[in-house]
Automatic annotation (TrEMBL):
Marked site: Transition state stabilizer: 262
Pfam families: His_Phos_1 (PF00300)
Signal sequence annotation: none
Protein's UniProt name: phosphoglycerate mutase (2,3-diphosphoglycerate-dependent)
Region (Disordered): 60-81
Length: 334
């Protein structure tokens, strides 16, 4: 079981100066604040999480109805609170090789599978009514493996709405079976940012060739795209927009939602949730396979950090809704 996570990024006084070196793809000068990442006690990996607890007024639109959406564990109410879990996929085979991956569809490594299972243990007491994943296999594997650990034991089922026939052919004809299912919506908009001509290149070799500062600019700046790829800003135009248009309405309706996606598509969503500036988001780093919990209440997102695990007591402290859900799970087992 993973140890506790520090949810707080430790603000450092160190500042980092952008290179004035011009590049074919962009030029930037000036100071940015560099934020060290909080560290995880076991495993030694880092979870970067800038400490700004912002709020967000969602656009209120009607949630769309899903075929197997009925009879969840709670009655959705517009005024209720809901849980939002964000998770970056576990380690992929190209993460392991240190290659720029972007929209290339690469599966998880055995370590990535373990990370997804571990993530599932951390969120096994938190209600989940709907799952959103990117269209990439590493995010989908992560979502599915994590859900295998959930104590409610509902079955995640991918919704196939790419054609009328696909929708019709994947219908479920038992209300009872539907009740035991969780709809999984796949959306290309949640894919990793398109890394352009860096896809498939080794990150270290690219840094050796173009310089650390140039590569850092491509990887972490807000508005400078890698060669023929997407900047974080461009990625946000689809990923954060999808979140606002499709996922927020579900939260407004009281649905508990998990989103399994990618380092940069999630950075764009967290930038929106935490109201980070284009300078602050530079230092936001997400580790593979670490779930992050937000509570959505009264139109605001409250960041609760990363759940520690099934035995932790703190889940009781998150909210009354989550505490009740945990008690219900406990009573189902005993
Ligand atoms: O696409 C990739 O290579 C990774 O998923 C994210 O890479 P980054 O940390 O270089 O943005």
């Amino acid at each position: 079981m993973a140890g506790a996570i520090s949810h707080h990024a430790l603000a450092s006084t160190q500042s980092y100066r952008w290179s004035a070196q011009s590049s074919r793809f962009g030029k930037r000068t000036g100071n940015v604040r560099w934020v060290h990442e909080g560290s995880r006690c076991s495993g030694g990996r880092k979870l970067g999480f800038v400490c700004t607890s912002g709020s967000q007024q969602p656009s209120v639109v009607e949630p769309f109805q899903l075929p197997s959406d009925g009879n969840s564990d709670h009655t959705p109410k517009k005024s209720s609170e809901s849980a939002l879990i964000l998770i970056r996929h576990g380690e992929s085979l190209w993460n392991e090789k240190n290659l720029f991956t972007g929209c290339v569809d690469v599966p998880l490594t055995p370590k990535g599978v373990e990370e997804a299972i571990e993530a599932g243990k951390r969120i096994c007491n938190i209600p989940i009514d709907m799952i959103y994943t990117s269209s990439l296999i590493r995010a989908q594997m992560t979502a599915m493996l994590a859900m295998m650990q959930h104590r409610r034991k509902k079955i995640p089922i991918i919704m196939h709405n790419e054609s009328e026939q696909a929708h019709r052919w994947s219908q479920i004809y038992s209300e009872e079976t539907k009740k035991q299912s969780i709809p999984v919506i796949t959306a290309w908009q949640l894919n990793e940012r398109m890394y352009g001509e860096l896809q498939g290149l080794n990150k270290q070799e690219t840094a050796d060739r173009f310089g650390n500062e140039q590569v850092h600019e491509w990887r972490r700046s807000y508005d400078i795209p890698p060669p023929n790829g997407e900047s974080l800003e461009m990625c946000a135009e689809r990923a954060a927009a999808y979140f606002k248009e499709q996922i927020v309405p579900q939260l407004v309706a009281g649905k508990h939602v998990m989103v399994a996606a990618h380092g940069n598509s999630l950075r764009s969503i967290i930038m929106h949730l935490d109201k980070l500036t284009s300078q602050e988001v530079i230092s936001l780093e997400l580790s593979t396979g670490i779930p992050m919990l937000y509570i959505f209440k009264e139109g605001k997102f409250i960041r609760r950090g990363s759940p520690v695990g099934p035995s932790e007591a703190s889940v009781y402290a998150y909210t009354r809704t989550l505490a009740k859900y945990r008690q219900k799970l406990d009573s189902m087992v005993s």
